[in-house]
């Protein structure tokens, strides 16, 4: 969608259009209510500001929609399409890397009680696996900070892509 189209939408349609970037109604509402925008970079700036801070409840809500890294969400939702595209950009991985990611995902979920979240865009499978192992050593508080930052990065990249 072009920025001019986004600016022209009624509020409910605008929220629906960008909701797949990040399912946090407050965040979506702040972006929609700041329209019209003169440039995509203006939207990105508002998106970044609206993402500081995310509450624990908002993080939990957003995490509930994210598939495990290395697994494809086969649903037809717009959010799933974004996730598939982001993970597909990683390219193929070896069987040992896939097995290591699956084991790491299980360890992470056992430790933190939610899916491991990382911005996949611009990263390799090996980098993601390395980050997963590093983050397993985080305290729950430190990990929550990293998860919030990853959500912000994912959301900003998605909204930028949606409107460019």
UniProtKB/TrEMBL annotation:
InterPro entries: OHCU_decarboxylase (IPR018020), OHCU_decarboxylase-2 (IPR017595), OHCU_decarboxylase_sf (IPR036778). It is an enzyme of class 4 (lyase). SUPFAM superfamilies: UraD-Like (SSF158694). The keyword Transmembrane helix does not apply. Residues 7-160 form the Oxo-4-hydroxy-4-carboxy-5-ureidoimidazoline decarboxylase domain. Keywords: Decarboxylase, Lyase, Purine metabolism. This is 2-oxo-4-hydroxy-4-carboxy-5-ureidoimidazoline decarboxylase. The gene is uraD.
């Amino acid at each position: 969608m072009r920025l001019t189209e986004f600016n022209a939408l009624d509020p409910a349609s605008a929220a629906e259009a960008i909701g797949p970037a990040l399912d946090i109604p407050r965040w979506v509402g702040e972006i929609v209510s700041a329209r019209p925008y003169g440039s995509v970079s203006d939207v990105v700036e508002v998106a970044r500001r609206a993402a500081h801070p995310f509450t624990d409840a908002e993080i939990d809500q957003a995490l509930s929609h994210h598939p495990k890294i290395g697994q494809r969400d086969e649903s037809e939702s717009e959010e799933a399409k974004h996730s598939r595209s982001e993970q597909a950009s990683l390219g193929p991985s070896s069987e040992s890397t896939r097995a290591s990611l699956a084991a790491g995902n299980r360890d992470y979920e056992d430790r933190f009680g939610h899916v491991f979240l990382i911005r996949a865009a611009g990263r390799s499978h090996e980098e993601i696996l390395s980050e997963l192992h590093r983050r397993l050593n985080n305290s729950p508080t430190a990990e929550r900070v990293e998860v919030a930052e990853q959500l912000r990065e994912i959301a900003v990249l998605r909204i930028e892509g949606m409107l460019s």
